[in-house]
Write the structure tokens for this entry.
Amino acid sequence: MEMTWSRWFRCESSFGLLLVPSQPGVFALGEEIAGPAGDAVRRQLAVFEIDESEDLVRSLSRLFTAASPWRGRLASMRCYMRYSVIPGRQERSAAVLALRNWLALQRGFATRPFEISEAATVAERAVDHVTRGISAKEAPAG
């Protein structure tokens, strides 16, 4: 399924939702995280919520109410949102399920500890072999 997404936009208050359509669709929330330091610093977003809605503007406006579990996070962090209009209920549900599965998989990769496994792949063994050779050549004789 191909989805046409809006651009990411900052969600500081419900007034920022003036251009969001009152149509069914899917939305994603993300917070800005610090990127790697250096010459090529890039802004990065970490998606923390994906959901569907019968009325995008109404659902997104509710995020700013006192009853919303996201209100504090939206107020205290640099959060952004985007949406995709999807009229069909089944298509919306399938899209949200696929996106949530992808997000859960990405979280699994991000939280996995970096360990050296005995069952390293051929590529990992090759990299280890090459990097050991470089460090041995660069070390001063002594």
